[in-house]
Design goal:
Elements (H helix, E strand, L loop, with lengths): L3 H7 L4 H23 L23 H6 L6 E2 L7 E2 L14 E3 L5 E3 H11 L21 E2 L23 H29 L6 H22 L5
Antiparallel strand pairs: 1-2, 3-4, 3-5
Helix pairs in contact: 5-6
Bound molecules: zinc ion (ZN) (3 copies).
């Protein structure tokens, strides 16, 4: 896959343009943050945000795709796939879904994940897209009705790329969990053997730890807020 030249044409490096982009992006993010944080003291003017078809940067995807109206966007890597954004009950069947990187860049999922796996950076801004501890590529997240409220924050909004990718982290948590379950089971058995019924507190404590572990583990797995 060599879309580097196509991207250079689509996104020429131009200092003046870059600076004006920064101002525009700054205003845009401030406005989106006000909406998201509910801190807008003044009513938001009823201006429909018109997003150009070649836009690829969305630092606050939940606001952009659930509040602003985005009609038509095209994948800026293949220039072919029309990116369709979540509507209620929108099925992913038969469509090529859009996906987002931690830096807030959006393209079609096959283009974005293929590029990152091969080159370990973002095709738009060249930010490294690798998990430091395990060395795996960062997986861009699909933007769909079921997933958009669970996306981690983009980097500019305070999100972070985890040291491990999600499968590696899940595997490590699972290993830790089974060691803890083994230890907890052993201490329940030990307290049953050695603690007299007149003083049941240590045994009850050991049983409580044993009972609580699976719930704690599930909460840890579900609450992964990192990329
Ligand atoms: Zn594409
Ligand atoms: Zn990027
Ligand atoms: Zn990994």
């Amino acid at each position: 896959m060599d879309n580097t030249n196509a991207l250079r044409v689509a996104f020429p490096h131009n200092q003046a343009e870059e600076e004006s982009d920064v101002n525009f992006v700054g205003d845009y993010i401030r406005r989106q943050e006000e909406i998201e944080d509910g801190l807008a003291f003044h009513p938001i003017p009823p201006i429909k945000l018109v997003i150009p078809e070649d836009q690829a940067y969305f630092p606050t995807p939940m606001v952009t795709f659930l509040i602003d109206t985005v009609d038509k966007l095209r994948c800026q890597i293949c220039q072919e796939v029309e990116l369709r954004f979540p509507r209620e009950n929108n099925s992913l069947e038969g469509i090529t879904p859009p996906a987002i990187t931690p830096c807030g860049h959006v393209a079609c999922f096959p283009c974005l994940s293929g590029w990152i796996r091969e080159r370990l950076d973002c095709p738009f801004c060249r930010k490294p897209m690798m998990h430091a501890a395990c060395g795996h590529a960062v997986e861009p997240r699909i933007i769909a009705w079921e997933t958009i409220t669970r996306l981690p924050k983009t980097l500019i909004r305070g999100g972070t790329i985890g040291a491990e990718c999600r499968p590696c982290l899940a595997e490590r948590l699972k290993q830790i969990f089974w060691v803890q379950m083994g230890n907890a089971a052993t201490s329940v058995m030990n307290t049953r053997r050695t603690i007299f019924d007149a003083h049941p507190a240590p045994r009850m404590y050991a049983e409580q730890v044993f009972q609580d572990l699976p719930r704690q583990y599930r909460a840890q797995v579900i609450e992964q807020q990192q990329w």
